[in-house]
């Protein structure tokens, strides 16, 4: 589904991704872990199409198409979803209005009829229950004055609405209390099927108790330096990153 | 001066594709402004002596005045001696089909969703029998006549209702009020006159739209609207269709008078040619709009959506004289590319228990400058006056500017005045977030703008509000990305 090959990218002349590669197949869950500042969010942003970066080398293919060649909104309509590490506030636009516009764009791309207000509200209520989000939030402007946890839950709600093919969760677990963590994880598990895939960026093995990954990758200095099964996360939790850093630095 | 604008050259040389060109015929006044010009205009219109005297008084006042420099707008010096102040009124050139209309304008009509038949009327295409605009207009006029409502051109009013015109013209905006008002008073070409008799509720929105096929009212428009005791009227000015005009300078005057228990709702959608993307051409719009709540419990409410013109200078105001009277101002002013707007309102509290409410939403994009300028004045006798002002600015991109100049003059201790202001920006982060949810940048901007302007749009008559929404989207097209 997603094939990233030897990706190099820089921002303001500073190289952040240095030969990143990853293969994701339908039905898989990949966890990416790694120290602060190694480029995890950079990778997520580049996949979603944020413009600030220069991709200097490498390719990204999504369902046979050149992902880097598409505008961000096209990628979203094709089924790429990013749950942001820091969700943005949109003044004056209610979540309901925002999601209605968003869902109908995605549906249009899938050659489906737009939902009218009644149908939309039905879907919205259903998905809201799904992530156990307070109905009152729906009338408020997107993320405006939301608590950290509410923002993250709102991201998962949007994911549930749009039913993406590839979801990238950038530290969605950070700042969540235990209950919220469980709810978010359950959300992902219920959405998961053999046709979609998830890339879960996290610092904590805790999340991976709920969302069981097929692969765990360690990212360091702009690329994946170690991959393994879910036991790798446990090992990292116990030992930290130093041993990996040393391994990598020794080979350089 | 080299940078001095030669308005006539501009007109004749610029690539106006709208199909009507100014021919200098003998019916027109000579270029420039003098006492003779004023006499010429008055004579051409067969005006009574008092009207001429009034114009001449205004002309003399204007001579002694100087153009204001305080607004936050910049433009090359206008040479008032290079303007033609009177051109014989003649109907727009009639086109045979929409194929003859500027494709750019048709494109905009399409985006605004204006029905085909209306497009034809707006573009000056001969309308076929299916929708006979004349008969629509006639029914409309008959209905008004039954109710005793007068709605006609200013020229007709001067002849047919001289006592009303004489009594009220200049009573709200005196000839010496300001430079442009004085100019308008001297040379006004035409405009609308409206009188709603006592206790009458005007059953339909009065709209200049219905007068669209009458002679072009020209660049110095004059409107006078009187709502007698206990009456109600909602008046629509302008339309969302793009208006091009061969005249660069526009200086209109609008006067509203509300008697005891009367209510006037005045809505404007202004979409005049803003100039091209480099800021060339475009209309200079210097308007004086003022209403007086003359009677007790009267109410005047201005709602405006301003998207056009290169320069807008406009402060629809309310003088709250009657006890318990209410003044309202709801405004959306959009500037894009090189447009400049200095607009706002004045609420002058004179009577007891008078209340006013100001909601101003400025949107700036491109390299434009958008200023809000508002005055709330409470006179010593205005016990318990209350004002609430909300002034919000929205910036799109980072090359535009928004400025807020609130002025407060309160001379009564019992007055309560509240002011709130916000500035927000549609930055790249917001747009990326929206893009990531499948929304194009244009759709995202539209969504945000509609949310932002909701409070103003809900005061517009319904069909107008929908059109205004689309209009904003069109005006801001290409402003981001
Ligand atoms: N605009 C920028 N200019 C220069 N450097 C930048 C810019 N944006 C990000 N960086 C740098 O890129 C590197 C990678 O940042 P990124 O946000 O991808 O890290 P991360 O792995 O997501 O970290 P964290 O775990 O803290 O979220 C960091 O060193 C960061 O400072
Ligand atoms: Mg990060």
Keywords:
heterodimer; A: 252 residues; alpha/beta; six-stranded mixed β-sheet; four-stranded antiparallel β-sheet; 9 helices; 10 strands; 40% helix; globular; B: 481 residues; eleven-stranded mixed β-sheet; eight-stranded parallel β-sheet; 12 helices; 19 strands; disordered N terminus; binds adenosine-5'-triphosphate; binds magnesium ion
Care to describe what's here?
- The complex is a heterodimer of chains A (about 250) and B (about 475).
- With about 250 residues, chain A is of the alpha/beta class.
- Chain A is about 40% helix and about 25% strand.
- A 6-stranded mixed beta sheet of chain A has the order 6-7-8-3-9-10, with helices on both faces.
- Chain A starts with a strand and ends with a helix.
- The model of chain A has no long low-confidence stretch (mean pLDDT about 90).
- With about 475 residues, chain B is α/β, with parallel strands linked by helices.
- In chain B, the strands form 2 sheets. In chain B, strands 1, 2, 4, 6, 7, 9, 11, 12, 14, 16 and 18 form an 11-stranded mixed beta sheet that branches.
- In chain B, α3 (about 50-65) packs antiparallel against α9.
- The longest helix of chain B has 17 residues, at about 440-455.
- The radius of gyration of chain B is 22 Å and the shape is globular.
- Bound molecules: adenosine-5'-triphosphate (ATP) and magnesium ion.
- Magnesium ion (MG) binds near residues 40, 41, 85, 170 and 171 of chain A.
- Magnesium ion (MG) binds next to α1 of chain A.
How do you describe this structure in short?
By secondary structure, chain A is of the alpha/beta class. Chain A has helices at 40-48, 72-78, 95-109, 117-130, 148-162, 178-191, 205-210, 230-239, 242-251; strands spanning 2-11, 14-24, 29-33, 54-62, 65-66, 80-83, 166-170, 197-201, 215-220, 223-228.
């Amino acid at each position: 589904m997603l094939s990233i090959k030897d990706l190099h990218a820089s921002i303001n002349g500073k190289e952040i991704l240095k030969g990143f590669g990853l293969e994701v197949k339908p039905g898989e869950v990949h966890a990416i872990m790694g120290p602060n500042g190694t480029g995890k969010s950079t990778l997520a942003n580049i996949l979603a199409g944020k413009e600030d970066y220069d991709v200097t080398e490498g390719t990204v293919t999504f369902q046979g198409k050149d992902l880097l060649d598409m505008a961000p909104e096209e990628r979203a309509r094709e089924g790429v979803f990013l749950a942001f590490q820091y969700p943005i506030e949109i003044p004056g636009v209610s979540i309901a209005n925002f999601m209605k516009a968003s869902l109908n764009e995605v549906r249009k791309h899938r050659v489906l009829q737009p939902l009218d207000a009644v149908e939309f509200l039905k879907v919205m209520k259903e998905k809201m229950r799904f992530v156990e989000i307070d109905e009152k939030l729906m009338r408020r402007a997107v993320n405006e004055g939301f608590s950290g946890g509410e923002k993250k839950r709102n991201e998962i709600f949007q994911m549930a609405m749009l039913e993406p093919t590839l979801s990238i969760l950038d530290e969605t677990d950070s700042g969540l209390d235990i209950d919220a963590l469980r709810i978010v994880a359950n959300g992902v598990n219920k959405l998961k099927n053999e046709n979609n895939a998830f890339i879960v960026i996290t610092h904590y093995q805790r999340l991976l108790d709920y969302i069981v990954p097929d692969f765990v990758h360690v990212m360091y200095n702009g690329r994946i330096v170690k991959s393994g099964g879910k036991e790798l996360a446990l090992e990292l939790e116990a030992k930290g990153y130093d041993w990996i850093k040393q391994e990598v630095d020794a080979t350089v | 001066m080299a940078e001095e604008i030669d308005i006539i050259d501009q007109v004749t040389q610029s690539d106006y594709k709208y199909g009507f060109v100014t021919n200098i015929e003998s019916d027109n006044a000579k270029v420039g402004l003098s006492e003779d010009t004023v006499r010429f205009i008055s004579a051409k219109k067969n005006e009574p002596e008092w009207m001429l005297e009034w114009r001449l008084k205004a002309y003399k006042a204007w001579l002694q005045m100087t153009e204001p420099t305080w607004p936050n707008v910049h433009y090359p010096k206008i040479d008032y001696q290079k303007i033609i102040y009177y051109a014989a009124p003649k109907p727009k050139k009639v086109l045979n089909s929409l194929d003859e209309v500027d494709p750019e304008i048709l494109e905009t009509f399409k985006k605004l969703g204006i029905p085909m038949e209306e497009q034809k009327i707006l573009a000056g295409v001969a309308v076929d029998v299916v929708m006979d605009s004349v008969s629509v207009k006639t029914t409309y006029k008959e209905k008004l006549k039954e109710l005793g409502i007068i709605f006609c051109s200013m020229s007709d009013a001067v002849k047919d209702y001289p006592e009303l015109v004489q009594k009220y013209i200049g009573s709200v905006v005196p000839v010496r009020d300001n430079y442009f008002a004085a100019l308008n008073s001297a040379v006004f070409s035409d405009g609308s006159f409206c009188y709603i008799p006592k206790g009458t509720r005007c059953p339909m929105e009065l709209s200049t739209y219905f007068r669209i096929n009458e002679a072009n009212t020209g660049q110095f428009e004059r409107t006078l609207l009187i709502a007698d005791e206990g009456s109600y009227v909602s008046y629509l000015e302008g339309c969302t269709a793009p208006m091009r005009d061969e005249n660069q300078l526009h200086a209109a005057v609008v006067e509203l008078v509300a008697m005891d228990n009367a209510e006037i709702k005045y809505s404007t959608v202004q979409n005049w040619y803003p100039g091209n993307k480099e800021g060339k051409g475009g209309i200079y719009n210097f308007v004086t709009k003022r209403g007086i709540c003359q009677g007790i419990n009267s109410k005047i409410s201005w709602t405006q959506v301003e998207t056009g013109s290169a320069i807008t200078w406009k402060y629809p105001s309310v003088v709250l004289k009657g006890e318990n009277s209410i003044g309202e101002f709801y405004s959306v002013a959009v500037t894009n590319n090189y447009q400049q707007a200095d607009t706002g309102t004045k609420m002058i509290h004179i009577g007891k228990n008078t209340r006013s409410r100001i909601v101003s939403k400025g949107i700036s994009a491109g390299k434009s400058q958008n200023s809000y300028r508002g005055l709330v004045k409470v006179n010593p006798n205005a016990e318990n006056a209350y004002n609430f002002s909300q002034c919000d600015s929205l910036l799109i991109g980072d090359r535009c500017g928004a400025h807020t100049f609130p002025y407060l003059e309160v001379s009564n201790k019992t007055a309560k005045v509240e002011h709130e202001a916000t500035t927000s920006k549609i930055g790249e982060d917001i747009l990326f977030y929206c893009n990531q949810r499948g929304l194009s940048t244009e759709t995202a901007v539209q969504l945000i703008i509609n949310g932002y302007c909701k409070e103003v749009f809900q005061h517009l008559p319904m069909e107008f509000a929908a059109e205004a929404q689309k209009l904003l989207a069109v005006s801001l097209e290409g402003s981001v990305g």
